[in-house]
Amino acid sequence: MYSLSQSVRVRGAAGEPLPNPFKGLTRLEAELRRGELSVVAAAGGTGKSVLAVNFAVQSNVPCLYFSADSTAATQLSRATAIITGDDSKVIKRKLHEGDFAEYAPALAQRWWIRFNFEARPTPATLELLLECFREVFGIYPHLVVLDNLSNVDAGAADSAESYTFGLEGLCDYLAEMARETHAHVMAMHHVVGEYSDGLKPIPQSGLRGKISRVPSLILTMHKEVDGMSGRTLNVSVVKNREGREDSSGETYAALEFNQSNIRLRDVDHAF
């Protein structure tokens, strides 16, 4: 056990916020803090993975990304587009045609971002790759992305009750992982059917499986489409142990989504 004075010395990097590429989220006091678990929840196709890969690339910190929901070609094209500003469709075509060498120098500058593409990783896989990351780089990653939470093979769930218990137990496990490694663990998650169109603010109660107890930070996302290929992703802070929150989801930061280069950037206003 530690006194308050001793706790200053033993806390390590726990609680330190990662660089936040989005000023709107900073204004809402939504920070990804090391040693903590966050959950990002939205309807399918809203842009959870887009937000995650933008955080991974734009925050520019050592990152281990478990991409169970997207293939290597998709994530490589997205990350390359964010880094270079080139059109992601052109990048993917060049990737499939074997004409990708021009992007090698830009990608080499992000050597500390590592991906795993298993569709059903187990907790043992998560632990193994975390230790591999530390063995290679001498440190644990500062950011661990789990895309998606429900893709982790944590054992059979043969009823709604066991499914919910399994997700809550998995969140407990991930929170402990964050605390032990001083990484921020960001897990993508789905929402209940009422919010499956992705077009309205999602409250804290809209998360599938009712897992809100464990994460320190919960963000939900909905989209606005202007009918001319423009899209805005609105990120609500519905739980936040370290700052402002609005469990209704009606308070959010607006991010402009460039569908060509996959980049997200702040919209000038935030609600």
TrEMBL record:
Highest taxon listed in the record's lineage: Bacteria
Protein's UniProt name: Uncharacterized protein
A Pfam family it matches: AAA_25
SUPFAM superfamilies: P-loop containing nucleoside triphosphate hydrolases
InterPro entries: P-loop_NTPase
